[in-house]
Write a structure and sequence with these properties.
15% strand; 27 helices; Glutamine Phosphoribosylpyrophosphate, subunit 1, domain 1; Rossmann fold; 643 residues; alpha+beta; 6-stranded antiparallel β-sheet
């Protein structure tokens, strides 16, 4: 696990390139505190920071082939590296280390850019081929590892984090209003857009090539939802196949030369992983969970996590967040994210990552189960869209107006608004929004800020145009796998774990398991009112019924209550009318109205308020005073408990 950077610039010399690379890697030391390495030759330079997980002694990067004509830097893990190394040796390659990174350079010698097809893992890597004078950069199929780039003419700069790009003297931190618009719509910025002008995210499953012909970006993998027709598989066959795949993917991700553990929320996904780890290991699994102080009657997930930990005899650790932790960490977390995502659980992910990093260097995480097997309520809600499709517009308007008068009931209002949209793209965009299109109009009313709600819709429309999925459920799952998963959940997981120099592995996102889930009949994912139907069938053989059947909570942070009470001064300060007017993006009176409605309990605007605070923090940190290695020092603010 590492952070990588690189430059192609014919206009500068090697000395200048090396100096800039050093500044870039210094800004992401948290991604790799164990080592650094550089390769500089004429107009190209590669750099990396290393978190040593596989072959700590011999896996220093950059790694080269036998004649030093091909060089690689890589971020991530290749889980099938042992099998690939054996194959490559039989093909005559001299494998000098036990590092998973070395197999990439030799696969490139054999297969060129098609080397990515042989990799099973999470990765973002860059290969410089001096014979061809060609740079090849690739990102893993699901987008578990990030990769950003900036291009101007024949100059290209790339890095694992945007803050590293901003160390380059030619790259300025300027807001991208299209990215901000998308963020306001869906809580995140869908790739290839970012919130920075001129900086792009390489989409998952894509490769980028730089040669004498310029820059080319090509997709090398996509997810097919073609369902096996005419087969004789029974439900028991599917259960057995999923059970085998889960064992296989977890076992592969236990390959490590350093101590490891698992995040445990007490939900189905993380609990299944802990159960399988317990079967595969001869010692107790180290598990890590997060809870929240003063939940005011709302149950957090710690009791469920403890139940699973007790069942499997894990070495269990917990951290409990308080409102003062939240405000203390807000700036640091925003800096680590590069660009905000409107999700208060980001701070909880940071907290549990910080806890885990005190005990291990790697964890397994349950991300991906909901997107593979239909775990969200919106998948059920989408079933009702045909009922609304032919409803007259006046009736829809009356329904929306009546719904708006109801106090609270935020989720029900979101569902009603989504179902009343005119087409599939608008509906999908509004199923999981920050500000829906009507609210965005009020947010920017009377201002010529350049922010509107169309940018997210374009991303969703482009995505839907590419899929072969032909059922409403699978079309929604495709969009979530391509956008929501990499640009929201996986971005959160990568940035918060790596902020604490911790590697997070995601067994559910092994591409073979993802392809299996996509090929399932829809009823194996959503059966009646049962979400994650097939996964729960497997889980029942491993977990208590109470865990399998409990309501999904995610990270139930009591942020709405905190914003009305302990954190209210923080909210009022960050979103004062003076601050909003000075920024010039939003209608200050509307923002104040949201806060007052929230304080008086007329509505639950906690998510909206946090989304606006996150954006303001981003402006302060990245735009008002562009970062030069801010917040790099490690911070421990959480008191942990050992259970």
């Amino acid at each position: 696990m590492c952070g990588i950077v690189g430059i192609i610039d014919p206009a500068v010399n090697a000395f200048e390139t090396r100096n800039v690379l050093q500044q870039m890697t210094d800004s992401i030391t948290h991604r790799g505190p164990d080592d650094e390495g550089f390769f500089v030759n004429d107009e190209v330079g590669l750099g990396m920071r290393r978190l040593s997980i596989i072959d700590p002694e011999g896996g220093q990067q950059p790694i080269s082939n036998e004649d030093n004509s091909v060089h690689v830097v890589s971020n991530g893990e290749i889980y099938n590296y042992r099998e690939l190394a054996h194959q490559l040796r039989t093909q005559g390659h001299d494998i000098a280390t036990d590092s998973d990174t070395e197999v990439i350079v030799h696969l490139y010698e054999e297969y060129g850019r098609d080397c990515v097809q042989h990799l099973r893992g999470m990765f973002a890597f860059a290969i410089w081929d001096s014979r061809k004078q060609e740079l090849f950069v690739a990102r893993d199929r699901l987008g578990i590892k990030p990769l950003y780039y900036w291009q101007s003419g024949d100059r290209l700069v790339f890095a694992s984090e945007i803050k590293a790009l901003l160390q380059h003297p030619c790259i300025n931190a300027a807001p991208n209003l299209n990215g901000i618009s998308a963020y306001l719509s869906v809580k995140y910025v869908p790739s290839p857009q970012t919130m920075f002008a001129g900086i792009k995210s390489l989409p998952p499953g894509h490769g980028l090539t730089v040669d004498r012909n310029g820059v080319q970006i090509k997709q090398y993998w996509d997810l097919s939802f073609q369902i096996e027709r005419g087969g004789s598989k029974t439900e028991d066959d599917y259960v057995a196949e999923l059970d085998d795949l889960l064992h296989q993917t977890v076992k592969l991700r236990l390959r490590s030369d350093v101590p490891f553990g698992a995040f445990l929320s007490g939900g189905v996904d993380s609990s299944v992983i802990v159960a399988l780890m317990s079967r595969l290991l001869d010692e107790p699994v180290k598990t890590f969970s997060v809870g929240f102080e003063h939940s005011r009657g709302k149950q957090d997930e710690l009791p469920y996590a403890r139940k699973v930990a007790n069942q499997f005899g894990t070495d269990h650790h917990e951290v409990v967040m308080r409102p003062d932790y939240f405000t203390e960490l807000a700036q640091k977390v925003t800096w680590h994210l590069d660009q905000p995502i409107a999700d208060q659980a980001t701070l909880a992910t940071f907290a549990v990552s910080e806890l885990a990093s005190r005990h291990v260097k790697m964890v397994l995480s349950g991300e991906g189960g909901d997107e593979l097997f239909a775990g969200y309520a919106r998948y059920l809600g989408e079933r009702y869209s045909p009922l609304f499709r032919f409803m007259p517009r006046p009736i829809k308007s009356l329904a929306l107006a009546a719904g708006a008068q109801l106090p609270r009931m935020r989720r029900q209002k979101i569902a009603l608004f989504a179902l009343c949209q005119k087409d599939e793209v608008a509906r999908f965009t509004n199923w999981f929004p920050l500000f829906n299109s009507d609210m965005q109009s009020e947010l920017v009313a009377g201002l010529d800020s350049g922010v509107n709600g169309s940018d997210a819709s374009r991303a969703f429309g482009s995505c839907l145009a590419k899929t072969d999925a032909d059922t409403p459920l699978n079309r929604m799952l495709y969009v979530d796998t391509k956008l929501w998963l990499p640009d929201f959940l996986l971005l959160r997981g990568d940035k918060m774990s790596m902020a604490n120099s911790l590697e997070a592995r995601t067994p559910f996102l092994d591409h073979k398991l993802v392809e299996f889930a996509a090929s399932l009949p829809p009823k194996m994912k959503l059966n009646g009112m049962v979400r994650k139907y097939l996964l729960k069938k497997v889980a029942r053989k491993l977990l208590p019924t109470e865990i399998v059947d409990r309501k999904k909570e995610g990270f139930p942070i009591p942020i709405s209550s905190w914003f009305r009470n302990e954190m209210n001064p923080f909210v009022r300060d960050m979103l004062s009318e003076e601050t909003i007017q000075r920024r010039g993006l939003f209608n200050a009176k509307y923002v104040t109205q949201l806060i007052e409605e929230h304080e008086s309990r007329l509505a639950d605007h906690g998510m909206l308020i946090w989304g606006l605070i996150s954006l303001e923090l981003w402006y302060q940190i990245y735009i008002d005073s562009p970062p030069r290695n801010k917040f790099c020092a490690p911070t421990t603010v959480f008191a942990s408990q050992h259970k």
